[in-house]
Amino acid sequence: MGAIPELPDRTDTVVVGGGLVGAATAYFLAADSDREVTLVERDNIAAGSTGDSSAILRHHYGDDEIYTEMAHWSHQFFREFEAETGQAIAHADSPMVRFGEEGTAAGDYAAAGYDALRDRDIPATWLDGDELPDAYPMYDGLEEFDFAVSDDTAAYSDGADAANGFARAAADAGAVVVTGVAVEGIATEDGRVVGVETEDGRVDCDEVVVAAGPWTPELAADVGVDVPITPTREQVVILDPGDDYVEAFPELTPTASVPGGEWYLRPDFGDNVLVATHYLTEETDPDDYDDTPDEETLLELTDVVTERIPGLADAGIQGQYCGVYSTTPDHDFVLDEAGPDGCFLACGFSGHGFKHGPAVGRIVRDLVVDGDTDLVDADYFALDRFDEHPEGHGKPADNV
Ligand SMILES: Cc1cc2nc3c(=O)[nH]c(=O)nc-3n(C[C@H](O)[C@H](O)[C@H](O)COP(=O)(O)OP(=O)(O)OC[C@H]3O[C@@H](n4cnc5c(N)ncnc54)[C@H](O)[C@@H]3O)c2cc1C
Fold this sequence. Notes:
By secondary structure, this protein is α+β, with helices and mostly antiparallel strands.
């Protein structure tokens, strides 16, 4: 085992937060620039939202094509993770299906996403209503849907695995990765960042990237920047479907949002099924929230899932926990330089940041080093969209 890295007195760029986003950003900066990089995490790598993530890797984003672009770029990176970084991470294929009804906003969103995938040669299948019962035999009641869109090469990974992979790869590329040290403030002089104050002393630097998940607003406020993030609580249950179900449906289930509820489900490693809420509304304290799903929610889950997938009626509960989203008013990210020069924000991932982690890391690297990126139009993620319109771009029709 190597020596535990110490906080340097000076570095070029400090990245605050060792979730997927901070770790990916530290990796791309260290591997693809001449910056000296220090990643500072107050707890362990993946201690925040990332460690609780369902880590679904889909490409379908309705007509929000900027996300399809980033998800596709990121998924290619995830598939090549070991070749790119030297670190192995968990990855399992699981097509994602969206059931659609014509003439509804969700149906239009599903259909638009099908076109966006086909335009980019991302494998996708259109199923007519009469094909659904045979295609998804574990489901009941699919007659009510007119069609479904399958994002055929969707997959899932593991949050802690991916963030630790990026953190180790960042260290291999020369970054200093320090855990167990909190950043307490950002030091500025003449309108630009000159350092960060930590509980273990000051680190001088030219730039800081704040990737502190739901804790980002408190650090940003320190330099007079208002970031509209509401931490929201989500609930996750891991079901053990039992041998008979696994034998009848070896693929367990497609990844899907469960019709009739604000839930999604996907297969999980080890023949389990993960079911989770996607409420985006239950405001919470990220330092003090109930980590056990509510009884009422478990009852609703039982009703909704067993109505749709009767074979799961007798599934056992293998595990349960809750996690926190960093929710913005429009559920879109904030990737921007804001406040003092050299202060970059990468936050507001609103329950869908995992699948974009590699692209976000690359984009933030580009903003810090080059001032712009050619991966996407990063203006879309500018913080000042909330200045005139507090609702930003407005909420998407669907973004499970
Ligand atoms: C239950 C759940 C399910 C999800 N499912 C999916 C999914 O299926 N697909 C998908 O794409 N996304 C999903 N997400 C969202 C995704 O996981 C997040 O968007 C993503 O992990 C955010 O990563 P992050 O690095 O921005 O934040 P975080 O993982 O929260 O990391 C922030 C880090 O900053 C550290 N920190 C905070 N303050 C300080 C400080 N002052 N000094 C130093 N360090 C500090 C924290 O300890 C933490 O480790 C899910 C999220 C949850 C909670």
